[in-house]
Amino acid sequence: MSFEFLDKYRGKRICVAVSGGVDSVCLLHYIWENAEKFSVVLSALTCEHGIRGETSVRDVEFVQRFCAVRDIPLSVFRRNVPAYAKQSGRGWEEEGRRFRYECYEKILTENKADFVATAHHLDDLAETALFRLIRGTSLSGVAAIREYGGIIRPFLNVSRAEIEAYAEENGLAFVEDETNAETKYSRNALRRNVMPELEKVVSGAGRHLAEFARRAGEDDACLCALARERIRKVGEDYYIPVSLPRPLFLRAAVMAASSLVRFTDYTEGTLREAEKLLALQSGKTACLGCGVEAAREGAEIAIYLPRKPFADTIPFARGVHVLGAYTAVVGDAGKLFADYDKFPDGCVLRTRREGDAFTPYGGCGKTLKAFLTDKKIPARKGRELPLIAKEHEVYAVFGVEVSDFVKTDASTKHIVRLELNEYV
User: Fold this and answer.
1) Cα pseudo-dihedral 107, 112, 114, 119, rounded to 10
2) pTM
């Protein structure tokens, strides 16, 4: 049997993620055996999760001995994953996965290797595809095990049986995770009970599932690229046209949300929430989870992290004033200008409040809320915009308009200009 993949990494530095299990041990051993032939600089890393007590320590010690005998440089990372999971509210498995990928990124960002190689194989790919299909997911979820950045999966075309045969042929010792035999865990139940039955029904079912996952990944990458082109970013917020075809809209929504709060995986539930956005009426909002919100604003859906409104007041005066996400400049620059002397004493800079009234330039008085709606300013933005007011009378809304009460005329002696800039 041959694991023919090293030629494409000729002359590169590869760090293998090793748990001590048969898969990662075989990957490390194969690269070590062929490193000189392909001019590969080999190293390894192992992660001790603090989940299985002495067993975890035993596994790390095994990896340390395995690497020491072969003179393979090894980086050891340790973390009390249960403690981190308790603090974050995530499960042990998810917290452990995050820990491992943090370690991989550390190796790459510190330039200790060109690639981090994991030992995920064909059966892992098939089982993950099936698990996510029955749990509810998308093409992206089906193709979850893929190469990206500096993380490579050299064994994705290699079956578990081939790996075990390599271990036996080379007399390789490895450690067994006793929890792999416990079918109370869904993945183990799939591996030990469901996949063998599928193979009986359709020979090669696992390989077919893996091939489907790979094709799904290619299709998803193409659709994601098209969706990404249609996302518009303004400041920290993302905007997506409602007119996008459904497959592109859903991907764009998830990508935008993931840019704000990282989603490790999105399920059918996430997609259902994203799909509801298509039916949102203008001004209505929805929650996408993890603190991410969305609002229908005209022909677009805005996806954002809500900001805490600025609740304080600042005395009206010339200068630069910070109000939440904005800076409001009262000075000699800006598109809006007003008669400085017409602002009554006691004016302050603040944001919108219930009961605020506004008389537009050359118009009739109305509620500030109605005025902003007429200007087609989204409600969430209208609540954040700095304004100048005394009690409930608003004399200027930065970036929008000044009141008829402070407009300039032939008697104006002191003109002041108002400028709005996004601060965050």
Assistant:
1) -50
2) 0.66
Name residue 324's amino acid: G
Torsion of CA 271, 273, 278, 280, to 10 degrees: 180
Sequence letter at residue 22:
V
pLDDT tens for residues 259-283? 887 654 455 566 677 778 888 777 7
Bridge partners, residue 216, by sequence: none
**Which class for 334: exposed (0-12), middle (13-18), buried (19 or more C-beta within 10 A)?**
middle
Length of the chain measured in residues: 424
Tokens standing for residue 272: 């259902």
Rounded to whole angstroms, the Cα distance separating 301 from 421 reads 23
| Lookup: tokens for 338 | 């007003």
CA distances from 131 to 160, 185, 187, 194 (A): 17, 12, 7, 10
Q: CA angle 164-217-158, nearest 5°?
A: 15
- The predicted-structure confidence for 320-358, as pLDDT tens digits, reads as follows 999 988 999 999 988 999 999 999 999 999 999 999 999
| DSSP state for residue 181 in the 8-state scheme | G
pLDDT average, residue stretch 55-63: 89
- Pick left, alpha or beta for residue 342 (phi over 0 → left; psi -120 to 50 → alpha; otherwise beta): alpha
Pairing of strands 41-48, 13-17: parallel
